[in-house]
Amino acid sequence: MPDQKDDARKKAGLISSGKIYISNTIKIPYPFDRSTTGPGAGSLSITLSFNNKNIKLEVSRDQNELFSLQKENNTYCILKGGKILLKNVKIIPTPFHAPGQAFINLESRCIYNCAFCNLSESKFLQNYDKDKFVDLIMKASKRNDFEGVALTSGIYPNNTITIKTMCEIIREVKEKEDEFPANGPWRPCHPGKRAGNWREKSPFQKNARARKWNEPSVLPIEKLALS
After folding, report:
1. Which domain holds residue 121?
2. How far is CA 119 from CA 95, 98, 108, 116, 128, in A?
3. Counting beta carbons within 10 angstroms of the beta carbon of residue 47, is it exposed (0 to 12), middle (13 to 18) or buried (19 or more)?
4. How far is CA 121 from each of CA 9, 59, 197, rounded to the nearest angstrom?
5. Each residue's pLDDT tens digit, 180-207
6. How far apart are CA 98 and CA 93, in angstroms?
7. Which string of DSSP letters, residue by residue, matches 123-156?
8. Domain check: are 102 and 208 in the same one?
9. Which of 92, 115, 132 lies at the terminal end of a domain, its last residue?
10. Where a domain ends, among 72, 92, 112?
11. Local structure of residue 32 (DSSP, 8 states)
12. Is the pLDDT of residue 173 over 80?
């Protein structure tokens, strides 16, 4: 039985460092992520899992980093100062920047300068328009491990235009996919309760195909996170 307090301390140490050394000789099963916001914004990052805990760290090529990743049979282990800290570590695919979720940043520019925010200064998002973001969401929704969408954005050129852009993207997604099959990768969303695994039987599921997006008790994608 994993020691939850010990795992929490180890995760806190990893978060405090924020980086992990990965040698070029280690073969990674999934491409590194390069998100424009959140942990490791603007840099290559990797999402690791151990004892039901997930953590996203910036990938470093500096051998002097405190933490490093090492291949161990069919899994990986995390070293701290050259000594094994965690075993049976898995790498989680994050093609859309978060496990099971499409975490999409619409704008890396911002008129504010919040101390807690780590939006990257990458300019490639300036080449994206609403249609490209809609396509990204639709592509993500076809994955078997897909559970929901979160939209975030820097505020540019002002609040009104940013909110309008988000609403237009959500509207277009709804128009393309107004309903979803009951056996799709969706978690039943019960008001006031934590969403359960989508494979579990639910009184909502048998009628899910007939339900529309404007019924918020059914599909978590209705709860698109706006920030």
Report:
1. 97-223
2. 19, 16, 6, 10, 16
3. buried
4. 32, 18, 37
5. 333 334 444 444 444 444 334 333 333 4
6. 8
7. -GGGG--HHHHHHHHHHHHTSTT--EEEEE----
8. yes
9. 92
10. 92
11. P
12. yes
